[in-house]
Amino acid sequence: QRQVVESGGGLVQPGGSLRLSCAASGFRLDYYAIGWFRQAPGKEREAVSCTSNGSTKVAESVQGRFTISKDNAKNTGYLQINKLKPEDTAIYYCAADLRPQGMCVMTDSEYEFWGQGTQVTVSS
Fold first, then answer.
1. Residue 24 dihedral angles phi and psi, to the nearest 5°
2. CA distance 41 to 52
3. Which tens digit of pLDDT belongs to each residue from 19-34?
4. Which positions of the chain have pLDDT values less than 70?
5. Which residue from 84, 108, 94, 71 is spatially nearest to 10, judged by alpha carbons?
6. Of 12, 77, 89, 113, whose CB is crowded by the most CB atoms within 10 A?
């Protein structure tokens, strides 16, 4: 069964950091792009970052604070989030898109496998 599972969310104070993980099973991440998306209460889901073997993209709204990475040997993707703000509060989802080469895309419809999400809450 091919799936991705997120972990690492939690409650953190403004200015804090979190590292979210996206563990893939049933397939090799070597040939896949990883995308991170988030959905805040009452808002549409938005793409925050993606990475493939050929590129990395980060949404303008989180540039300088969010760093995406992918460790093919561990079959796991990561999203490092620094300087967290209350507006970062959301459910964060990772997704995988079969893309052996070329640029990753920030379009959720391109992604085949989705995790259940991990809650990130930023509050003092």
1. -95, 145
2. 29
3. 999 999 999 999 999 9
4. none
5. 84
6. 77
